[in-house]
Amino acid sequence: MQRIRSLKTFGHLLKSGCEGVNISPSTSRNYSHGPNSFGLLFDIDGVLVRGTTPIPAAKTCFKNLVDHKGKYKVPVVFVTNAGNCMRETKAEHLSHVLEVEVSPDQVVLSHSPLRMFKQFHKLCVLVSGQGPVVEVAHNLGFHDVVTIDMLREAYPLLDVVDHNRRPKDRIPPTKGLRHIDAVILFGEPIRWETNLQLIVDVLLTRGNPDNIWSSTHYPHIPVLACNMDILWMAEAKNPRFGHGMFLVALESLYKKVTGCELKYEALIGKPSIVTYNYAELLLRQQAGRLGWTTPVKRLYAIGDNPMADIYGANLYNRYLQASQRTRAQMQAKSGKLGVDSQAEIFDDAPLITQAEIGSTSGAYMAAEDLPEQCSSILVCTGVYSRDQQELPSDPPQTVTEKHIFHGHRDFHFDPSLMQPSIVAHDVKEAVELVFQQEGWALE
């Protein structure tokens, strides 16, 4: 794992990749809240819903979060690792189950930050996942998209695990496809064996399955993966495998065949910093619509998964603290901080890996644009349950305590990052505690 020691800002890249986001606060309504300027980041699965079933406390909570006109009292953004739909579809679903209006620009899906990765938008990309993957890819800015189904139809001899899908009477001709430049993994597919086989084919042939496998094709073409969740919570009593488990299988297969590590150009979705940076930009947009004239200083991230939600919020908080220290140090030395002056932002910070940043491109917002802190709140209605698991301690409290790391291979295990700022029974209690801490009345 690579320690980040030189990160230059590219806030302009984040802003240009977030089309339609106006980060200037609206002045149409004078709601200047002074120091009590905070925003809420909500996970969805296990916090607001279980599968398609709403959690009762969530509906009550959101009725209290809006006024009699249906306007939010504080800025709210929903941050989920789901990615098998358009954000408009997710917003419509949330509006229905919560019985409050949720707009698409309040929703961050696991793949949403891909809007910023414009260097890939004009390349031919292979996409893996389920749902309207082509529509999602085009909406994010990708122009030339190939699906797994398109690939297997063009090369009918590649997908043969299922005997019923093998060619029967004759060997069909290969149609061929344009050269594939990169692989985008949106989420867990339906047919794992087909996706695993064909993705490995593409990687070992440098994007052209007409070629013969070669381990000399290394490093392989770029791979960008969204959603690293090993487990997630639906209606079942126990967690279900997530896309992170599919990534484990892909990494293991690739290494078994080649002896080399699968490399990622970007890992996106919680707990990567880029996802929280992107969500915070949308939160500032919401604050502007509310008429707030002071920036959002404190974030509260509410989730049910210690590895994704708590680790991610705490990692982002670590990033924010390192940014502030660096800014103070630079100001003390030179009296001002230039836009490209964060080159040593993590020199004195705890370990932060390149994977945890979210991409090989670096950090995102200038230090003066960032909030002061991000607090993590863990609820007990999803993956985490007080009765079924204990949060890891650092160091272990007993000789029998085992640290089972459900994070991605490229993320480091730090038990302190999995310790929430607050543990609440459900999302209603979590929001009540936030409002109490901020000194706000919640009716």
From TrEMBL:
Cellular-component GO terms for this entry: mitochondrion
SUPFAM superfamilies named among the record's database cross-references: HAD-like
Keywords of this entry: Hydrolase, Signal
InterPro entries named in the record: CDP-alcohol_PTase-I, HAD-like_sf, HAD-SF_hydro_IIA, HAD-SF_hydro_IIA_CECR5, HAD_sf
GO biological process terms, semicolon-separated: glycerophospholipid biosynthetic process
Entry-linked Gene3D superfamilies: HAD superfamily/HAD-like
Gene Ontology molecular function: hydrolase activity
Family of this protein: Belongs to the HAD-like hydrolase superfamily.
NCBIfam families in the cross-refs: CECR5, HAD-SF-IIA
Name the UniProt record assigns to this protein: Haloacid dehalogenase-like hydrolase domain-containing 5
Annotated source species: Channa argus
